[in-house]
């Protein structure tokens, strides 16, 4: 049952009503708003993504933590706050109890959004790209907390693969080991985030949101570990970043990171920022194209799921 009375969560009135009635709801992360885009475009995109959900017949639930309280769905004032307030933290799942205790505010990453959405009773979540295993992981053992959360959270995540700055084959191997189900939507290869394809094969292909909803029903019927379902939805070829430009600038970014000694949590924002500058913003536009497509697909899946 949806946890609309959970004292650790505060759903908006719109989301609470949708969950209580069984209407379709789509979770959206807030990190892209606070940390991923410049102002004022970040607020414009946040509103645009919520409108995409509504036009598909579902209710958007942008998730964030404000003053220590997990908000499941934001009103206009709260959305503006996430888009404009300086010093907002980036919160993973492990940070949530600290934020609650210290009454801190922050935007939620994939791991935190997945956890809070599932706890609230929301089954479908749209994001851009997942975190994963970092390049050079055999030496530094660096991987995203997203992977552990998805291995123990029953949620369907629509994404354009994992960020292409990561070790994609190693990430897919880790997801397989942790029992996370992956299906490609109208694709036989895993998407490459900015790119239509990473070149890595996917074992299972589906053709429609309705088939995704059927897989979700299969998960529930079979039981077992509460793992996620990843729906890999590639950015259209016409909207992807030029592959040659991507490869050249990424190689430059990796070399710059090694030269400057950038490691740990700092590596991802460093590389992504380098890509934006090195491609004159084209990587950002490809990212946004992927996010919009993922939100549309997630909305259709939520509608199909709610009609079960």
Written account of the structure:
The structure is a single chain. The chain is an alpha/beta fold and 308 residues long. Helix content is 46%, strand content 14%. It is built from 13 helices and eleven strands. It has helices at 13-21, 31-34, 41-55, 76-84, 96-101, 110-120, 137-140, 145-150, 168-177, 209-222, 243-260, 267-278, 282-306; strands at 9-11, 25-28, 59-66, 69-72, 89-91, 106-108, 124-126, 156-159, 181-185, 205-206, 229-232. Strands 1, 2, 3, 4, 5, 6, 7, 8, 9, 10 and 11 form an eleven-stranded mixed β-sheet that branches. Strand 3 and strand 4 form a beta hairpin. The two termini are 15 Å apart. The mean pLDDT is 93.
Instruction: Report the count of strand segments.
Output: 11
Helices and strands, in N-to-C order? EHEHHEEHEHEHEHHEHEEHEHHH
Give the percentage of residues in beta strands.
Answer: 5-15%
Terminal residue distance: 15 Å
Per the principal axes of the C-alpha atoms, what is the gross shape? Answer: globular
Low-pLDDT residue intervals, each spanning 5 or more residues: none
Taking the sheet with the most strands, its summary is: 11 strands, mixed
Task: For the structure shown, list the relevant keywords.
11-stranded mixed β-sheet, 14% strand, single chain, 11 strands, 13 helices, globular, alpha/beta, 308 residues
């Amino acid at each position: 049952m949806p946890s609309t009375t959970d004292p650790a969560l505060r759903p908006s009135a719109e989301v609470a009503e949708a969950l209580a009635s069984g209407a379709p709801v789509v979770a959206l992360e807030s990190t892209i708003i606070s940390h991923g885009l410049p102002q004022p475009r970040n607020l414009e995109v946040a509103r645009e993504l919520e409108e995409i959900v509504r036009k598909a017949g579902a209710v958007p639930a942008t998730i964030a933590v404000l003053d220590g309280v997990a908000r499941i769905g934001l009103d206009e004032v709260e959305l503006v706050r996430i888009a404009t307030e300086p010093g907002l933290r980036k919160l993973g799942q492990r940070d949530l109890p600290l934020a609650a205790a210290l009454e801190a505010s922050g935007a939620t990453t994939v791991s935190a959004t997945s956890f809070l959405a599932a706890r609230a009773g929301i089954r479908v979540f749209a994001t851009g790209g997942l975190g994963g295993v970092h390049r050079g992981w055999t030496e530094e053992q660096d991987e995203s907390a997203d992977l552990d959360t998805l291995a123990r959270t029953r949620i369907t995540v629509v994404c354009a693969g994992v960020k292409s700055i990561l070790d994609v084959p190693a990430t897919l191997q880790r997801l397989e080991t942790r029992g996370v189900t992956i299906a490609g939507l109208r694709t036989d290869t895993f998407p490459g985030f900015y790119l239509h394809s990473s070149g890595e094969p996917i074992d299972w292909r589906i053709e429609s949101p309705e088939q995704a909803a059927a897989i979700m029903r299969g998960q529930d019927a079979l039981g077992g570990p509460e793992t996620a379902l990843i729906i890999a939805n590639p950015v259209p070829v016409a909207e992807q970043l030029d592959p040659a430009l991507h490869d050249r600038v990424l190689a430059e970014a990796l070399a710059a990171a090694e030269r400057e000694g950038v490691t740990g949590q700092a590596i991802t924002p460093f590389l992504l920022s380098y890509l934006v500058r090195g491609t004159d913003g084209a990587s950002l536009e490809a990212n946004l194209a992927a996010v919009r497509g993922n939100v549309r697909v997630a909305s259709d899946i939520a509608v199909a799921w709610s009609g079960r």
